[in-house]
Amino acid sequence: RTDDTVARLGGDEFGLVLPRAGGRKRTVELLTQVRHELAETVVLDGVSLSVGASFGVCFYPDGAETLEQLLRHADAAMYQGKHGAAGIVVYEPGTPQHATHVLALHEELLQALARDQLVLHYQPKVALDTGRVSSLEALVSWQHPDRGLLPPAEFLLVAEEYPELIDGLTSWALRRALADCAAWTSDGHDWAVAVNIYPRNLVSLEFAETVSQILEEAPVGSDRLHLEVTEAALTFQTASAEAVIGALAAQGISIAIDDFGTGFTGLSKLRTVQVSEVKIDWKVLAGLQGNENDRAVLRSVIDLGHSLGFRITAVGVESKEVADVLIAARCDQAQGSLWLSPSPWTDVARLFGERTETDLALASTTTEENSP
């Protein structure tokens, strides 16, 4: 219809403006047709692909009185559709549904940023050949005034749906992590700090400019900052993500690909992206014990990564047996509850600030026992 408008809002999200929607029933019928058309299989480079879509709908003026409310309520309903079975969700004012919960959480998160209620805990990355800490990964939690300390899973999915939230949260995390890095540096620890960034951050080169400004104000140099981006961000935003990553790397920042092994990005494809570290997802490690085929695949991935110049880090290591397999496969680093769950950096400093001779001997003995 010629008076409808389709606009890309960012990432994989689009907005539809339907002046002649024709009421709830006709709108849902129209979007069902759009959903069906999007889901038709297409072939790219010999691979069959299909696209799934979730829709959130808000009507003016029944569901919203302003443009900002219209977008926010539609986005909240879309979030409900994305994480449920409905697919198409119409915002219902005053109904105690998940969309309302999302809106409330959105407002609470904005207040949390303004009131400095977020905290960073850190998990060390341990060099498997020496047992020493090389860097700390910053993980954000929320010190909620009523619900206590909330882990990232409780709020990050909502934050990622709103540009103003994820941008603010990322900027806050960068500033706080760099300040903490300066604190442990002055305490005598030469650890770098790793901060997670999100797919929405990679939509525009403005993010690279923001990071540059933050670094100018930071008490440590860009070489002490590592940024981690998920494999999924490269899969779905290849062109923009590669441009932003390139601009970040040009500032001297080390870039890591997180959750590797959960998507469809091959190591060879990463040659076109300026990354220096690949983090193997914990799901890939789940079958290592007692499964020689899985061990052979792991060795191949690590060998290929090394040949391409990547540092390989294993995530989610919980047992010494898995650590032994990783050492035998020449994995560079690992992190997980075997060493320490996410904690304040002062706890990391107390436990790992000075490795004992026993610790180092254990790392050496483990390496020798598993060497070919």
Walk me through what this model shows:
- By secondary structure, the protein is an alpha/beta fold.
- The protein is 42% helix and 21% strand.
- The chain is built from 13 helices and 15 strands.
- It has helices at residues 23-38, 67-82, 98-114, 156-159, 163-186, 206-217, 231-236, 238-249, 282-285, 292-307, 320-328, 345-352, 357-369, and strands at 5-10, 13-17, 42-44, 47-49, 55-57, 88-90, 118-127, 133-144, 148-150, 192-196, 225-230, 254-260, 277-280, 311-315, 333-335.
- It has an eight-stranded mixed beta barrel, surrounded by four helices.
- Strand 3 (42-44) and strand 4 (47-49) form a beta hairpin.
- Helix 5 runs parallel beside helix 6 (206-217).
- Residues 355-372 have low confidence and may be disordered.
Q: Count of DSSP helices? A: 13
Oligomer: single chain
Q: Report the helical percentage.
A: 40-55%
Q: Biggest sheet, open or closed, and with what strands and sense?
A: 8 strands, mixed, barrel
Taking Cα atoms only, what radius of gyration do you get, to the nearest Å? 23 Å
Morphology call: globular
